[in-house]
Amino acid sequence: MSELSCDIGIGGMTCASCVARVERAIGKLTDVKEVSVNLATESARVTWKTSGAEPVNAQEQQARLRRAVRDAGYEPLAAAHLEQAPAGAWTGFGPVAWGLLLSAPLVLPMLGDALGQHWMLPALWQFLLATPVQFILGARFYKAGWHALLAGSGNMDLLVAIGTTAGWLLSMWLWLTAHDGHMVHLYFEGSAVVITLVLLGKWLEARAKRQTTDAIRALHALRPEKARVITPDGEVEIPIDELLVGDRVVVLPGERFAADGVVQEGQTQVDEAMLTGEPLPVHKAVGARVTGGSINGEGRVLMQVSATGTATVLANIIRLVEDAQAAKAPIQRLVDQVSAVFVPVVLVLALITLLAWWLTGHSLEVSLIHSVAVLVIACPCALGLATPAAIMAGTGVAAQHGILIKDAQALEVAHKVDTVAFDKTGTLTVGQPRLLSLTLVNSNDVAHADSEAALLLLAASLQSGSEHPLAHAVVQEAKSKGLQWTAPDDVKAVSGFGSEGQVQGRALLLGSLRWMSVLQVPAGPWQTQAAQLQSEGATVSVLAERTPAGVVALAILAFGDEPKPGVQAALNLLRQRGLRLVMISGDNKGAAHAMAARLGWKPDEVFAEVLPGDKAALVHSLQDNPHGAPHVVAFVGDGINDAPALAAADVGLAMANLNADGQRGGTDVAMQAAGITLMRGDVALVAGALDISARTVAKIRQNLFWAFAYNAAGIPLAAMGYLSPVVAGAAMALSSVSVMTNALLLKRWKP
Q1: pLDDT for res 80
Q2: Average of pLDDT values for 304-320?
Q3: Which one, 412, 427, 473, 597, has least CB within 10 Å?
Q4: Using CA atoms, how far apart are residues 221 and 296, in angstroms rounded to an integer?
Q5: Beta strand 633-637 with 606-607: parallel, antiparallel or unpaired?
Q6: Which conformational region is residue 124 in: left (phi greater than 0), alpha (psi within -120 to 50 degrees), or beta?
Q7: CATH level 2 (architecture), domain 434-560
Q8: What per-residue confidence (pLDDT) applies to 320?
């Protein structure tokens, strides 16, 4: 017995009950072992049990799967829909706009009544404006509600359909039975406005859902479309989907590696920030492994493919993000559960009201009016607005202060966080290397007596034309000290080692310790000092000079990163709130522990040399609590390498850092994988994000309480005849206004 997995996209899902319905439908298929529906990515991963004796008909399995999804009331899509270009910010707003346009003339008379003016539209005009909203724009609610009934459950769509239909039918009945010349109050505006407002909420939810899938699209975008393969006929460009293990691929400077592989010819510097998060390129020579999606530096290399498709490191990262993004909003799930019970209860109460009044000797008209009053006042307008109104207000005020919240689940969960895990480079630190120290090398072989400033000037002159991050750090340090360097002569880059050239008539070299070893630079105490700097986490280069006696070392240059301004105070504030803080970094242990010590971390709170997949696993281990409820973990990161951990955490917070060129680079992927983005890259905003979460969740709970309390009080009054449909409609509108007003109080928040 073996297993076969496949993915399928699913369109039309709106809530947790939709997920459960699809899972039940697929789970009923023969040979299905496991099904996991991901609401965030609108997809399902299905595992089939297959018999080794019978060949698997993949096409038939896919057809059965798509048929089950369609029978459940949803649209089967190709799994590749995640790789398509993201939709615009206003995609799908058309129905909402039409609803607002058609409902506005119906609402204006209500405002006129409040001002003592009679602006009532003729019944025919009310009918013509409300009917398209009810049955064209509201068709989705009828469809979704019908499928919910077939599945033996209830949801918000069913409530909307029942409540608005009751108002529309009552209006039609009153209009058609009215005496000639007698103006009766109709309820077309109630049904139209409810439909429009709920459509607005649905659009906001769909917009947020699309944003959560942008992380997957950004990761897919790291893969080049084509690869340059060596064939017997020469170099041929082919789609990367046609790459095979063993193919020899040429990668030019500035191109991305199309797949995982091993360097066979050439050497270069490779930007592996997507894996390590480090700003420094990594030297790759013959025999070195390269990862698909990483960027080739200055050298042309020939690599042999070792993994393609789903077997690559990048594909694994994508899969980790997809799996971790399956999320269900706890509060919205509660609303769906209540709605499933609320619908039949309201229907039963409306029927009881109708029969009770009719059997006690009242006319059918009076009985029907009281029954409809029950349905009108039970319309879930306030219930539907409770959560999105608070989320809109909370996210809006947060954005004004540099906190971008695009994941409703993160907003609901953030206030429960008790553990915060930080990436190091780019999150706690500046993320760009700088020259930490320049130390003279005392050598009797050097004919020149140079000062530190003089050697810094020589190094800056040699590096002035280089784009290497370390060269930039040297030039910036010289600039900060007001030094004026001169243009070098005969400069050449030695791939994987450093650079060499003439400065002021001197033959200078600046490069790695490995290069100094190759050049057989005389040993001395400086090597011990260099090793010590490396153990402390610094990147070490050596400035040397060619002399008649050979190459001799002049100075040791130590490069490193610095904490962001205000990081220490921000971390102390979080510790004062009782939060546990840890550091998770892909750096070497020396660099990670050195930085952690500067920021007040204990050694057991630091995890170094952690790869992207391991970061996600480490986050899960932090969530485990053998002594009680699981810990709620927030992860703060800024690079592509942090995407799996950001998605795996209960709350992901991304730092929107800019590099020296003003570009975010891999930070974009981190921003899309995270539920919350700190737009200023300021660690102090972490505490602000947790606080606005707490305040927003409090408003959501208050809104839901008043929405439920409104129904709990209004339905009995309507059933007993104390509320007419007119008053019920006004009460319904008042409940919506109160929910919106309460939510807007969040606009006064400041971090």
Answers
A1: 55
A2: 77
A3: 597
A4: 16
A5: unpaired
A6: alpha
A7: 3-Layer(aba) Sandwich (3.40)
A8: 52
**CATH 1.10.287.1040 for domain 224-311:** no
User: pTM score, two decimals?
Assistant: 0.56
Listed in sequence order, the residues at least 6 apart from 632 whose beta carbon sits closer than 8 Å to its beta carbon are 413, 416, 417, 418, 419, 623, 650, 651
- Give 213-270 as a DSSP string: THHHHHHHTTS-SEEEEEETTEEEEEEGGG--TT-EEEE-TTPBPSSEEEEEE--EEE
Query: Which pLDDT belongs to residue 263?
Result: 92
Task: Give the model's pLDDT for residue 220.
Answer: 73
Q: What is the DSSP string of 689-707?
A: HHHHHHHHHHHHHHHHHHH
Beta strands in 425-465 (DSSP E): 434-440
CATH number for 407-430+563-689 (one of 3.40.50.1000, 3.30.70.420, 3.40.50.10310, 2.160.10.10): it is: 3.40.50.1000
Q: What is the pLDDT of residues 683-731, one digit of tens each?
A: 888 999 999 888 988 888 888 888 778 878 888 988 898 876 556 655 6
Q: Please report the pLDDT score of residue 604 as a whole number.
A: 87
- The 8-class DSSP code of residue 426 comes to T
15 pLDDT higher than 60: no
Of 137, 164, 148, nearest to 14 by C-alpha is: 148
Give the pLDDT band (50/70/90) at residue 748: confident
At how many degrees (to 10) do helices 684-719 and 725-744 cross?
Answer: 170
Is residue 77 helix, strand or coil? strand
CA angle 237, 238, 244 (to 5 degrees): 125
| 59-70 CB burial, b ≥16 within 10 A, e <16 | eebeebbbebbe
Amino acid at 477: E
d(CA 395, CA 389): 10
The secondary structure of 356-414 as a DSSP string is: HHHHTT--HHHHHHHHHHHHHHT-THHHHHHHHHHHHHHHHHHHHTTEEE--HHHHHHG
Break the chain into its structural domains and give their ranges. Answer: 2-83, 224-311, 329-406+690-751, 407-430+563-689, 434-560
Using 50, 70 and 90 to split pLDDT, how confident is the model at 305? very high
Selection from 511, 509, 433 nearest residue 472 by Cα: 433
Catalytic residue among 423, 450, 650, 691: 423
- In DSSP terms, which residues pair with 506 in a beta bridge? 503
Instruction: Report the relative pairing of strands 403-405 and 676-678 from DSSP bridges.
Output: antiparallel
Fold of the domain built from segment(s) 2-83: Alpha-Beta Plaits (3.30.70)
| Whole-number Cα distances in Å, 326 to 24, 190, 412, 649 | 17, 36, 15, 12
Residue 423: active-site member: yes
Render pLDDT for 558-588 as a digit per residue (tens, 0 to 9). Answer: 888 788 888 899 999 999 989 999 998 876 6
Rounded CA-CA distance 719/728 in Å is 11
Strands in 550-560's sheet, in edge-to-edge order, are 434-440, 550-560, 539-547, 506-512, 498-503, 489-494
What pLDDT, on the 0 to 100 scale, is given for residue 210? 59
Tokens of 385: 């607005």
For 204-256, the pLDDT digits (tens) are 656 645 554 555 666 677 788 889 999 888 888 888 888 999 999 999 988 89
Report whether 425 contacts 431 (CB < 8 A): yes
Residue 385 CB contacts under 8 Å (≥ 6 apart), including other chains: 197, 201, 703, 707, 736, 739, 740
